[in-house]
Each structure stands twice: as C-alpha cells, then as structure tokens.
Amino acid sequence: MRVLIQRVKRASVTIEGNVKSKIEKGLLVLLGIEDSDSNEDIQWLCNKVVNLRIFDDENGVMNLSLKETDSEILVVSQFTLFASTKKGNRPSYIRASKPDIAIPLYEEFCRELEKAINKTVQTGSFGAHMDVELINDGLVTIWIDSKEKE
Q1: Nearest-angstrom CA–CA distance, 44 and 17
Q2: Is 80 among the residues known to form the active site?
Q3: Which member of 80, 120, 123, 141 is catalytic?
Q4: Exposed end of the chain (fewer CB within 10 Å): N or C?
C-alpha cells in the first residue's frame, strides 16, 4: 500500500462538474493498493499519516501532526501509484489491485483514519474520473510505502 501525501491549504474532488468532497487545511492523501496489502498495512499507514509531524508550530517549524492541528483529510484512490515504467513508454499497472480487492481496502483505510482522528474523512469516488484540485501548503509532499517499513 502506498500513499502520496500533500499538505494543502485546501483540496477538492469534482466528478462530472459536481463537487463531491472538499477540505480546508489538511492532507490530500492519494492511496494506491496492491493485492498483497492487508489490514496490517492499513493500520501502519494510518498511524503514519495521522502522526506525521508536518504542520508548523508557533515557531514555523514542522513539529505538529494532523491530530494536533485539527486538520482535515481527503483520501483519493490512485492506482497509478503502482505504475511500472521499466519497459517502454507506456506504464504498466499490473501491480495495482482490481476493484474487488481494492475497494474494501480503500474503505477500511478511510474508516481507520476516521477512528484515529475522530472526524469524517472526505473521499473521492473509487473508479470515477475525478478532477482533483489543490493548493499546496509549502510544497510538503511525502511518499510512504507500507512494504518499506524498515
């Protein structure tokens, strides 16, 4: 399981011209899922996401977590995080899970985040063509792969 986290001033997901979800200050989390992912990956990544100290404290130092800042989360499924570009110029997505595996894991990931922060997590719509708009906050972008824990 992989996430690409962006600290944002605001972010939204629009589908067919309608805003589905939006957040103000917080994290946009792009989530990629592969078949070998499990509840252990979900637990580990959720813990990382909510406890990363990437928000500024009163001195302008990244020293506060999402939980400490009462920030919001928007989670968007992103199968292209498992793109392989080793051969040719057309990415292969063979490692990305198909919906029957990915959807339940995506939904569980969102539920676990909600439990961790005790508030609703905003989401995209799995498999939909989404327009994701965001205003980065300081260009804080972090990549985490649950298979690279050590």
Answers
A1: 35
A2: yes
A3: 80
A4: C
Helices 39-51, 99-117: inter-axial angle, 10-degree rounding: 40
Q: What is the pLDDT of residues 36-94, one digit of tens each?
A: 999 999 999 999 999 999 999 999 999 999 999 989 999 999 998 988 888 889 998 88
Residue-range definition of the domain harbouring residue 112: 2-148
| Matching residue, tokens 């300081």 | 138
CATH number of residue 55's parent domain: 3.50.80.10
Q: What is the pLDDT of residue 51?
A: 96
Q: Structural domain tally of the chain?
A: 1
CA dihedral of residues 133, 39, 143, 70 (deg, nearest 10): 60
* Residue 13 amino acid letter: V
Positive or negative, the Cα torsion across 112, 125, 121, 133?
Answer: positive
pLDDT tens, position by position, 89-134: 999 888 899 999 999 999 999 999 999 999 999 999 988 999 999 9
